[in-house]
Design brief:
The protein is α+β, with helices and mostly antiparallel strands and 102 residues long. The protein has one domain: OB fold (Dihydrolipoamide Acetyltransferase, E2P). The chain contains 2 helices and 5 strands; from the N terminus they run ββαβββα. The protein has a 3-stranded antiparallel β-sheet with strand order 3-4-5, with helices on one face. A two-stranded antiparallel sheet has the order 1-2. A hairpin with a 4-residue loop joins strand 4 and strand 5. The termini are far apart. InterPro entries: Chemokine_IL8-like_dom (IPR001811), Interleukin_8-like_sf (IPR036048). This is C-C motif chemokine 25. It is found in: Secreted. Pfam families: IL8 (PF00048). Keywords: Chemotaxis, Cytokine, Disulfide bond, Inflammatory response, Secreted, Signal.
């Protein structure tokens, strides 16, 4: 992500927490990463990546809003996986390919 300083974050390292992030901002979150304490990253954090806004949001792992958004992003990821798997299965059937186990 290059050099990026955003409210307590340097590159991919959170140096401070956001107390709360606006819903309108978090809607752009594409993924998150759990930061462990190591090297210059001296606090545990969850980093939400917002590529459309070219920002990162740092949250305290135990905060309610952080846990809620981690759950939302996990559900989005699982939903995309299931949709793509179903789509591939349906395309295989349309093309007449025999699916394993059938």
């Amino acid at each position: 992500m290059g050099r990026c300083v955003v409210a307590g974050a340097f590159e991919d390292c959170c140096l401070a927490y956001h107390r709360r992030a606006r819903l309108s901002l978090l809607r752009h979150a594409q993924s998150y990463h759990r930061q462990d304490v190591s090297g210059s990253c001296n606090l545990p954090a969850v980093i939400f990546f917002l590529p459309q806004k070219n920002k990162m949001v740092c949250g305290r792992p135990g905060d309610r809003w952080v846990r809620a958004w981690m759950k939302i992003l996990d559900a989005r990821k699982n939903s995309q996986y299931h949709h793509s798997t179903r789509r591939n299965f349906q395309e295989g059937l349309r093309q007449g390919n025999e699916m394993p186990g059938m």
